[in-house]
Specification:
The complex is a heterodimer. Helix content of chain A is 42%, strand content 19%. Chain A has helices at residues 10-22, 33-43, 59-68, 86-94, 110-118; strands spanning 2-6, 26-30, 47-51, 77-81, 99-102. Chain A is globular and about 35 Å long. The N and C termini of chain A lie far apart (27 Å). Chain B is of the alpha+beta class. Chain B folds into two domains: 3-100, no CATH class; 114-266, 2-Layer Sandwich (Heat Shock Protein 90), CATH 3.30.565.10. Chain B has a five-stranded mixed beta sheet with strand order 4-5-6-8-7. Chain B has a three-stranded antiparallel beta sheet with strand order 1-2-3. In chain B, a hairpin with a 5-residue loop joins β2 (11-16) and β3 (22-26). In chain B, α3 packs parallel to α4 and α4 packs antiparallel against α6 (225-235). Residues 4-14, 16-29 and 262-270 of chain B have low confidence and may be disordered. Classes of the chains: A alpha/beta, B alpha+beta.
Chain lengths: 125, 270
């Protein structure tokens, strides 16, 4: 798969990128929400991993922008959140994400979770 | 990302550069102080979980040999980093939960069915009891529902059960008993464990108070579990008390007000 990862923390960006690349996926990165939206329109990735708190345009606003655009509307967006409390989870799903992955990331389950969400599994609020 | 905390005459101002959070906390309670406080705690959680993601994630990768083979010593060090990271994660979450349980904020009522709550919590604790060779028994009668926030009450009860299991030697017994008085229900957790010295009984609900332990029983504990449990119970208008005989066991009694809205269907077991 071609995966776009939007994450502003460089350590966590490297972690997610390595996890995906180790399984043979291609990774493109963006470090802010606006770049993520622009890049998504250009490369039309198979899935987007979107950190919720991003500079310039936060991850929820970026997701809403992608969902409002017919060109990117169908790309599944998975929220990455370091604050997986019920309210935050609901916000992530309301913005249009198909699901979320909580930080700290469970590295053993990470890839299965991404694959399941890409293949149509849906989170319930 | 930088975190700024500014303290000026009676006002704490916090802002995190690069994120949308900008919370203010007045010392004099403002109408929206609860919301600002909750935003602040949410920002803390995010800021603290972010570096923990790197610590735990990369130590996982090393441990799984994603970066090549490890010597026995290297594996041990990686395990230690990971355990330390997990302890820190537990501590961060407990401290933030402790800070967020404000006794002055209104209790959000989920209409907690006391009996199913006890059964769920006991079921979750059972594996640890079995691992330790401690018998876990429930003697629960049908009791009224309580007014309450189910996740927090469950966490408080779980803390009592975890403590009881941890401080009861193999072959011992932990019992959960319910009873009901006028306007309140009581949930008691009794154990046949090592007990608590009289001088310590008054102090165990203090944050970060630790009973002197000769072994490593205290490892990985936040020192906030009972303080948090008491805060949660008090917030619900209830009380949490302990009696104990050193060498014979302890009993923690949690009393919670009965849910008083007339709704017979909510009473007792489902």
């Amino acid at each position: 798969m071609r995966v776009l990862v939007a994450e502003d923390n460089l350590l966590n960006l490297e972690l997610v990128k390595d996890l995906l690349e180790m399984s043979g996926h291609t990774v493109e990165v963006a470090q802010d929400g606006r770049t993520a939206v622009e890049l998504a329109r250009q490369i039309l990735p198979d899935v987007i991993l979107m950190d919720v708190q991003l500079p310039r345009l936060d991850g929820l606003a970026a997701t809403r922008a992608l969902k409002a655009d017919p060109a990117t509307r169908d790309i599944p967006v998975i929220g990455l959140t370091a604050n997986a409390m019920p309210d935050d989870r609901r916000q992530v799903l309301e913005a249009g994400c198909v699901g979320y992955i909580a930080k700290p990331i469970d590295t053993v389950r990470f890839l299965d979770r991404v694959t399941a969400l890409v293949n149509g599994e849906r989170e319930v609020a | 990302m930088s975190l700024f905390v500014l303290v000026t005459d009676g006002t704490v101002r916090l802002s995190i550069e690069g994120s949308s959070v900008n919370a203010e906390l007045g010392v004099a309670e403002q109408p929206d102080a609860g919301r600002a406080r909750s935003q602040l705690l949410s920002a803390f959680r995010h800021e603290l979980h972010t570096p923990l993601t790197a610590i735990l994630g990369f130590s996982d990768l090393l441990k799984n040999r994603s970066a090549g083979e490890l010597t026995a010593k290297q594996e041990r060090y990686v395990d230690n980093i990971r355990r330390g990271g997990l302890q820190l994660l537990h501590l961060v979450d407990t401290v933030l939960e402790y800070a967020s349980v404000q006794s002055d904020a209104p209790v959000e009522d989920d209409g907690a069915a006391a009996r199913s709550l006890i059964e769920d919590v006991a079921a979750a604790a059972r594996a640890e009891a079995e691992r330790k060779g401690v018998t876990l028994e429930l003697h629960t009668i049908a009791i009224s529902n309580v007014v309450g926030e189910r996740p927090r009450l469950a966490r408080a009860l779980r803390q009592l059960l975890d403590n009881a299991i941890q401080f009861t030697p193999k072959g011992g017994r932990v019992t959960v008993l319910t009873s009901e008085g006028e306007g309140f229900v009581q949930i008691a957790v009794e154990d046949t464990g090592i007990g608590i010295a009289l001088a310590d009984q008054k102090r165990i609900f203090e944050p970060f108070f630790r009973v002197d332990l000769t072994n490593d029983e205290g490892e990985g504990r936040s020192g906030l579990g009972l303080a948090l449990a008491e805060r949660v119970v008090n917030r619900h208008g209830g009380s949490l008390e302990v009696t104990s005989v050193p060498g014979h066991g302890s009993a923690f009694r949690m009393r919670l007000p009965v849910f008083s809205r007339p709704a017979e269907t909510r009473l007792g077991a489902p």
